[in-house]
Known about the structure:
The complex is a heterodimer of chains A (366) and B (329). Chain A is α/β, with parallel strands linked by helices and 366 residues long. Helix content of chain A is 45%, strand content 9%. Chain A folds into two domains: 12-323, Rossmann fold (3-Layer(aba) Sandwich); 330-361. The longest helix of chain A is centred in the last third of the chain and has 24 residues, at 300-323. Chain A is globular. In chain B, strands 3-2-4-5-7-6-12 form a seven-stranded mixed beta sheet, sandwiched between helices. At the A-B interface, helix 5, helix 6 and helix 14 of A face helix 3, helix 4 and helix 5 of B. Chain B: Keywords: Oxidoreductase, Pyruvate, Thiamine pyrophosphate.
Amino acid sequence: MHEISYRGEIRLxxxxxxxxxxxxxxxxxxxxxxxxxxxxxxxxxxxQFDTKAISLQRTGQLGTYASLLGAEAIDVVCASRxxxxxxxxxxxxxxxxxxxxxxxxxxxxxxxGGDERGSSAPEMQHDLPNAxxxxxxxxxxxxxATALKLRQQHQAVLTVIGDGGTSKGDFMEALNVAGAWQxxxxxxxxxxxxxxxxxxxxxxxxxxxxxxxLGAGIRGEQVDGNDAIALHDVVGxxxxxxxxxxxxxxxxxxxYRLSDHTTADDATRYRSADELKAAWARDPVARLRHWxxxxxxxxxxxxxxxxxxxxxxxxxxxxDYLALPAQPVDDLYDHLYAECPPTLAVQxxxxxxxxxxxxxxxxxxx
Amino acid sequence: xxxxxxxxxxAVNLALARxxxxxxxVVLLGxxxxxxxxxxxxxxxxxxxxxxxxxIDTPLAETMIAGLSVGMATQGMRPVxxxxxxxxxxxxxxxxxxxxxxxxxxxxxxxxxxMVLRAPFGGGIHAPxxxxxxxxxxLAHIPGLRVVIPSSPARAYGLLLAAxxxxxxxxxxxxxxxxxxxxxxxxxxxxxxxxxxxxxxREGSDITLISWGxxxxxxxxxxxxxAAEGVSCEVIDVAxxxxxxxxxLVASVxxxxxxxxxxEAPRHGGMGAEIAATLGEQARxxxxxxxxxxxxxxxxxxxxxxxxxxxxxxxxxxxxVKATMEYVE
Lengths: 366, 329
């Protein structure tokens, strides 16, 4: 004899179709001008930042850069739904989240421009710096959430991971402990369908990534990651549950990486132009713009004015970035430990001497 | 023996209790550390005393223990995590190397990572496979981590307190072979020991013996035997493998002109090589003989039937000292 011990299901939330038209009756909270206009403006800013960062990289003024193209809705809505005292544990594609949480744009460029001070902005408060190794940030988020819980601070932690990262043990261990300890954490998967060159279909046979939550006994759901209204609903509720002590949530946001993996990648080697073209038809920025137009909250004049304003903002930030003074060589030695050990102080002297040689135009040889 | 004297293991427990009583941000986490008090009993009684919120039994996942500690530490808590045996520390490596060690530097001090990862290590207790290795050199190689190893109850107490109060991530490796080897009277006065100095355990004039952890016992025994034969050995417990106190080592060898470095870990790429190279660079003029190493071999740590063949013993040290004393250019 058999009986069913467990049965699970995964819900997908979406409000707008690809063209930005409502899929059904829209809830009352969705019908005003805000926060949607604000979201849209931030998404435009994110996209302009992205375009600018890539052009800086192409002209040798920025290092390798990981584009967020296609993830604007996920980044903007997640960051906007967080409270100041919530903690963000980002991965390397969350530029707009960091921007919205207060990191100056010049600092973001500084990070990608090879200068550690890009992770040291006081505006970042208790937020963690970018996690570059895959999936490790999920466990750090659980650690931050444990600290909040032990200190009885009723705030939430939000972390983001790509679809490829969900194949890693850290992700599963994080879901597991978040469930076991009912931690105030929200895991957001930016399922952009590609982990560099490996498609979602080759990562995992499960029909959804959200269902990985079921194995950890936590809430898991999907949301259309290109639908800002759906994200607002799903992410907002998950954060509220976390703050209220009602446990963690795994949100799989379905989206598409419209860019190369990074500026060092060329996606034309492994994916078809047709697939990319089809993905652009689901572009989150255009979708929200259509909805706003349709609702009468936005028009061409406002669009042009905002594009111009954003351009100015970005240009000013780029000017700030390019004008940043060089980092003192001592920084590398002075911040490794709380106090610089004597053995390292000797190496700091050597580094100072080397820097002096470089500044004098020497070859670096004695 | 005084009834109030305690073992190294009990000193670990005493320091943990003291640190927790002093600072509400100190939280212990690990596998079986709560109700069970740890497989070696290092955390015995602490959950009872401080509660389940501060002595936390984790799920069985070492990566998670390390990653969670990093996250907690970034928020100013002081997690003291236990990895049950050093042989199981490898899943934690990514978090130690890629995150804990780098958090302060990459945020230029905006965040730090004041965590301690404790792990019993070393051979000699007839433990199963993967329970007896000494891989301290792997950790000591990582800039940003501190690696600390006590060799007596007093140093276990003082160094563990220092490690917990330190604003850097500290790997605290406990030589389990001497967990219960001797007892010392320790006053629970909350006094930490410095993390930036070697400990000179015995002064001597002919040769410097440099070691750490459980091998300090054999090293001191060898020094006793050699003293009877007229060889005066200075014995130094390195204790803090990274950052390391070169100055004390260099000063001692500059005085004696000779040294033997003793460790249980494999020779190749071990800490002995690092110390020998430094002495070659910084005490060259005084050296009367090449620095000599007495170490484990570059094999797997054998299963327990042969572990005594692997571990350096007092005879090995005495032989190496005599050869070094007799060395002629």
